[in-house]
Design a protein that fits this description.
The protein has four helices and 14 strands. By secondary structure, it is α+β, with helices and mostly antiparallel strands. Helix 2 packs across helix 4. The protein has one domain. The strands form four sheets. The protein has a six-stranded antiparallel sheet with strand order 9-14-10-11-12-13. It has a four-stranded mixed sheet with strand order 5-3-4-6. The mean pLDDT is 95. The radius of gyration is 16 Å and the shape is globular.
């Protein structure tokens, strides 16, 4: 039976057999029986590679952080995670540079995490979203259409599923609810291009 450690673009945790391209964490969320008992612990939410320097871990080990998995980087960013400074150092530096250019703010990890924490949640377990014109969003941002998550990518929308992107729709010009945190949308717009699952290119 799959563990409840796959992250949706909304930041929720689900159980699925489908595999993701990135791993990450937001603290220890599981109990001794590997059941999810909290939404987050702390404000340092990061996205990591799934293999790094030969390290081996038993997923959801007692007393350890909860390993989370994402379809791709666009999902990790939409849910409010940023690149890890260790295993994804080059991406982290690119993210910092775009952050400075877009927001004119400190790029220290603690300062970015504080801003991201304010941008992704309006209350415990409650996503903070905002409205924007669909055709003005950068590639890599996620929007909510009728309760489903859609990725803006190369002039169209692609619907997220745990296994990959499925239905494709025209982008359009209407106002929509943006899932990706406002500060991360600004970072993407400033030139940080998130990696996406190959199914987005199909």
């Amino acid at each position: 039976m799959p563990l409840q450690n796959r992250v949706t673009p909304f930041g929720d945790l689900i159980a699925t057999e489908a595999r993701g391209l990135l791993m990450g964490n937001r603290g220890r969320l599981h109990d001794s029986r590997r059941r999810i008992v909290r939404y987050a612990q702390g404000r340092r939410w990061i996205a990591c590679v799934t293999s790094f320097r030969g390290r081996r871990r038993r997923v959801m080990s007692p007393g350890s952080y909860t390993e989370l998995f994402f379809l791709d980087e666009a999902v990790a960013l939409a849910s409010g995670h940023r690149p890890c400074a260790e295993c994804r150092h080059r991406d982290y530096r690119r993210f910092q540079a775009a952050w400075a250019g877009a927001l004119g703010a400190s790029t220290a990890a603690d300062d970015m995490d504080r801003r991201l924490d304010a941008d992704r949640l309006s209350a415990p377990r409650t996503r903070r979203t905002y409205r924007a014109r669909l055709d003005r969003l950068p590639d890599g941002a996620y929007v909510d259409l009728d309760g489903a998550a859609w990725l803006a990518w190369k002039g169209s929308l692609r619907q997220w599923t745990p296994a990959g992107y499925s239905e494709v729709r025209a982008l359009g010009t209407r106002d929509v609810t943006v899932i990706t945190p406002r500060s991360i949308v600004a970072v993407i717009d400033a030139g940080y291009r998130p990696a996406v699952h190959p199914s987005a290119e199909a």
